[in-house]
Design a protein that fits this description.
alpha/beta; 12 strands; flat; binds iron/sulfur cluster
Length: about 325
């Protein structure tokens, strides 16, 4: 046997992983806007939480801004990110005579509409989510200040004192931990049995399926690698889900150069997945990095099949 033979490593590759339909649509919107209107196309906030994607779009002529004030007087479009925006943002764009394209994921828009309906019906609304996340800022900004109370933890759910317990409704961020959210909802439902729930789960199919795939393998691997950005909620949840399901080492990396090989020494079985905003090219890069050190075999573990596709905005359909 040659002395430099690589040790064997089984890679369990989660499926589904990576891009969801909402992220795919948001990136397409920026690319098609560049094709139709030429550069620059302005994008308010990171279109999706992934540096590789953002840098790729910058190279094609997208200009990322935090606020609309940074955009000069221009006929060029501005795209709103997949996370959604507060009502005040399109209104500000209109006042500035900016032409905007909305890349808000339709499943986030669904939550916005639920909030509006509850408000119209005079219900007190609880949003389960993470303070400061752009999606939470956008959802809370659908209604006047104070109309929605944010609940982040089980402790918040226990301490919450509604003004109108008999007219309570809850909505959630789309990218939460399925299990944590169920625990928070259980506390609220026990305290407020009349609370109205979403007709259809607010945590989206992509979040649910990616977490399910991680759970299937977490207790059967030495380490879990989640490819995604530190500010990506669904990626952070995947890392937590692996830890809670019994995986001793669960790491979130943006790409192969982030892999900490000291922590990954002596592995025999490793799981790999990617958050909903991480492109497949980064998964391939990570597998290649393992293959440079180990004799790898790759087994795909499938938790669900996905065939979701969302329509593009009307203004871009012909260009597509
Ligand atoms: S993670 Fe879910 S809600 Fe977010 S963009 Fe993807 S499909 Fe839409």
């Amino acid at each position: 046997m040659p002395t430099d033979a690589k040790p064997p490593l089984a890679i369990l590759l989660c499926s589904p992983r990576g891009f969801c339909a909402g992220v795919d649509r948001a990136i397409q919107i920026v690319e098609l806007a560049l094709k139709k209107f030429g550069a620059p196309v302005y994008v308010r906030h990171e279109i999706v939480h992934n540096r590789y994607v953002v840098d790729g779009l910058k190279a094609k002529g997208a200009v990322f801004v935090e606020e609309l004030d940074e955009i000069p007087d221009t006929g060029q479009p501005v795209v709103f990110s997949a996370h959604g925006v507060a009502k005040a943002v399109p209104e500000a764009a209109r006042l500035k005579n900016l032409f905007h394209l909305d890349a808000t994921c339709p499943l986030v828009t669904k939550v916005h509409r639920e909030a509006e309906i509850h408000y119209r019906k005079g219900r007190e609304i609880v949003l389960i989510g993470h303070a400061g996340h752009p999606e939470v800022v956008g959802t809370m900004g659908q209604l006047p200040e104070g109309a929605i109370t944010l609940i982040e933890t089980e402790a918040d759910a226990r301490a919450f004192q509604p003004k109108a317990p008999e007219k309570l409704a809850y909505i959630t961020q789309t990218t939460l931990s399925v299990d944590d959210t169920a625990a928070i909802v259980a506390i609220l439902s026990e305290r407020f049995p009349a609370m109205t729930a979403p007709h259809k789960e607010d945590i989206c199919y992509a979040t649910t399926n990616r977490q399910e795939a991680v759970k299937r393998i977490a207790s059967d691997i030495d380490a879990m690698i989640v490819i995604g950005a530190p500010n990506s909620s669904n990626s952070q949840r995947l890392r937590e889900v692996a830890t809670r399901a019994g995986c001793a080492v669960s790491l979130l990396v943006q790409r192969a150069s982030d892999l900490d090989w000291r922590r990954l020494a002596g592995l025999r079985r490793v799981g790999i997945t990617a958050g909903a905003s991480a492109p497949e090219v980064l998964v391939e890069e990570v597998i290649d990095a393992f293959a440079a050190r180990y004799a790898v075999t790759v087994e795909v573990v499938t938790a669900a099949e996905e065939a979701v596709v969302f329509n593009l905005p009307k203004a871009l359909r012909e260009t597509a």
